[in-house]
Amino acid sequence: MPLQDHLPPLNREFVAHFGEMGSKWGINRTVGQIYALIFISPRALNADEIAEQLEFSRSNVSMGLKELQSWRLVRLRHQPGDRREYFEAPADVWEIFRVLAEERRRREIEPTLSMLRTALLETPSTDAERHAQARMRDMHDLIDRLMTWFDDVQKLAPETALQLMGMGATVTRVLELKDRITGKGAARPARADQQPDAA
């Protein structure tokens, strides 16, 4: 459905993009556009306003808002003297990222970790099962380590977390230097444009 012409071009482009990206993020086009409109709105919106601006049916908007509430990506607000429900996105983008990451972890990662833990408790009876279990252990250990790191980042203040992200290349160089000094870490193959170190 076309977006209403009264949406400014920049807003319209952003909302349309979120609709197109929705399927890649596990939500449908309608929900993506509803969230994008709420996210860029300077004030909380009610379902009628959302339906009018996006030219969606009221029932589609209601279903979309319920899904966004289940993801904890919108907050319900009430206006004095108005019985309608209004919706807004958290003002802090870091808070949105944190909630989205937590929800994806709960819905997608934790069930996988649970399955892997159960599989690792089994006693393999064939070489094929032993090989499969070893691969599962590698996957479990990596995901578990990433989740531990994620928990640690979650405890940081947003400003500190953003500083940590900005240090990515610096941290990588420090770790590579540490590996060279200690002799740990797998040697990287040289790029074609690099000459081997002189002996």
From TrEMBL:
Q: Provide the GO MF annotations for this entry.
A: DNA binding; DNA-binding transcription factor activity
Which InterPro entries did the record assign?
ArsR-like_HTH, HTH-GbsR_regulator, HTH_MarR-typ, MJ1563, WH-like_DNA-bd_sf, WH_DNA-bd_sf
Asked if the Swiss-Prot or TrEMBL record annotates the protein with the keyword Transcription regulation, the reply is yes
Cite the HTH marR-type domain residue spans from the record: 26-85
Q: Which UniProt keywords apply?
A: DNA-binding, Transcription, Transcription regulation
Segments spanning the bilayer are: none
Top-level taxon of origin: Bacteria
By sequence similarity, the record places it as follows:
Belongs to the GbsR family.
> What protein am I looking at?
HTH-type transcriptional regulator
Q: What is the lineage of its organism?
A: Bacteria, Pseudomonadati, Pseudomonadota, Betaproteobacteria, Burkholderiales
